[in-house]
Design brief:
By secondary structure, the protein is mainly β. It contains 2 helices and 17 strands. The strands form 2 sheets. It has a 12-stranded antiparallel barrel. A hairpin with a 2-residue loop joins strand 13 and strand 14.
Length: 322
């Protein structure tokens, strides 16, 4: 009971700060007896009174441009950025208000490594900006499971939330210049979120499909980063369960469409995308603890304009339930 009260106090304290929610998946929804996805949202809500707490990190390895490539782009009259990688770590807390209704928050930390740029008006110079890092925007998300799963039908849920502009928007580069909003840890915008998920279980096998839309609004430096639509599907299989231990194998298809960004009404032609990743992963659990890892491999990268492609997206984390 003391642990539960402590976790509840932490959750309410974070809500008082502004609130946030899971970025990849609802924390701890799979439960001790069932398999479940990692990046895909599940329709199964957190059990009433349960408080799962999660720490995760995602490392995105980018196919960065060489200095020679950037200079060539500049010679062609194009302004192009490049970065080596993105590190996204976060703390997530969920709470089961009822067996059908749950809420969650997520607090991210973002780091974009080795940002460089070439300008068309300075075609012989590479601008080294360095790293951008700091606390990102919190997200608050509510899940309502309006249809419970039975032997003949799946569970269905809806999600509503908002991304709250609590992240840093004034980070400066090595030369003392403010990074553009796309490289800032925070966006400075209030972005509404809505989505839905479907889950069906067949013994040890769980099938999940989810859709999540984020409406981008005007934020820092008069920038709209662009709406995004995430579409995901997952198959999770419980391979064993013995003496409190269990293991899951997980295969997901994770897609995201993102609109081009605009700054002061001017569209950035080197933005916008539609990408799909195949993400094999696994989870090992012991009692209320679980650890997981997932590696996203690109199969579709339809990038608008000139942008860095993604080599891999590696997600790993730990969850504990109270």
């Amino acid at each position: 009971m003391n642990k539960r009260k402590t976790a509840a106090c932490i959750a309410f304290f974070l809500f008082a700060l502004c609130g946030s929610a899971w970025a990849h998946h609802p924390t701890g929804v799979s439960g001790p007896g069932h398999s479940g996805p990692l990046r895909t949202l599940s329709a199964i809500s957190i059990e009433q009174g349960r408080i799962p707490v999660e720490v995760d990190t995602e490392f995105i390895d980018l196919d960065s441009f060489s200095d020679q490539q950037l200079l060539q782009f500049a010679a062609e009259g194009k302004n192009v950025h490049s970065a080596n990688s993105i590190l996204h770590s976060s703390l997530g807390i969920g709470y089961g208000v009822t067996n059908e209704l749950s809420i969650g928050l997520r607090i991210p930390y973002v780091r974009v490594n080795n940002i460089r740029e070439a300008h068309a008006d300075e075609p012989e110079e590479i601008h080294i900006h360095g790293d951008s890092k700091g606390i990102g925007d919190m997200t608050l998300l509510m899940q309502y499971m309006f249809l419970k799963m039975t032997e003949s039908r799946p569970a269905m849920a809806v999600f509503f939330g908002v991304k709250i502009p609590t992240g840093k928007t004034n980070v400066k580069d090595v030369g003392g210049e403010r990074f553009e909003t796309e490289f800032q840890p925070g966006s400075g915008a209030w972005d509404p979120i809505a989505g839905t998920a479907i889950t069906k279980r067949f013994g040890s096998l769980s099938l999940d499909v989810s859709f999540l839309y984020t409406l981008s609004t005007r934020g820092a430096q008069a920038t709209r980063l662009g709406d995004s639509f995430q579409y995901n599907a997952a198959a999770s299989y419980r391979t064993f369960r013995s003496n409190g231990f269990s293991g899951d194998l997980i295969l997901e298809a994770n897609g995201e469409w993102r609109q081009k960004q605009k700054t002061a009404g001017i569209t950035d032609e080197n933005s916008g995308e539609n990408v799909i990743f195949i993400s094999p992963g696994m989870r090992l659990s012991w009692k209320q603890w679980s650890a997981y890892v997932s590696v996203g491999l690109p199969i579709v990268q339809d990038l608008k304009g000139i942008q860095n492609k993604t080599n891999t997206k590696t997600l790993f984390g730990v969850t504990v339930g109270f």
